[in-house]
Target: TRAP-type C4-dicarboxylate transport system, small permease component
Amino acid sequence: MNSIKRMIRFLDKSLEIVSMILLVLMIIVTVYQVILRSIFNNPTSWSEEIALLFMIWFGYLGVVNGVKDRTHITVEALSSRLSPRIQRILEKISDVLICGFGILMIKEGVVLYNISNMQRLPATQINKGMMYLVLIICGFMMVIYTTLQILNISIDREEKLTLKSNTNATEELL
Model:
């Protein structure tokens, strides 16, 4: 079990680092493109494709991060009025549906990757399959995180431990 927890912590940290790197690179490429186009009137042919590729990857990694931290959009108007037991059941149903969506992302990602694998992006000549590879990777990560949530396997993450201890201290003061 400890090796699984270490693997999940590594996956968490990798997700965070790759997301930050992609965001920074996307900003740098976009600013570079704007400067060359606006100031020097000499736009690059490759910068839009690279920025788009970074944005696609960053967006899907953001979805996985939302699933991991349970910060995806929920409608609480109804569920907040239900009993805690029913809320937990609805949460598990939500986890199963998100897991199913992750499986669908893997399945359709493989199809899209195989279709586009032989194509190249026009300006950069990067394999167009790179745009769809993220579906497979993020679908797999969503399945892992939702499976952990369905099975109530808790991975002690430093941020959540701090948050919980602060909440407990606040409750004790009240």
Notes: Residues 167 and 173 are 10 Å apart (CA to CA). Residues 159-174 have pLDDT under 50 and may be disordered. Residues 2-154 form one domain.
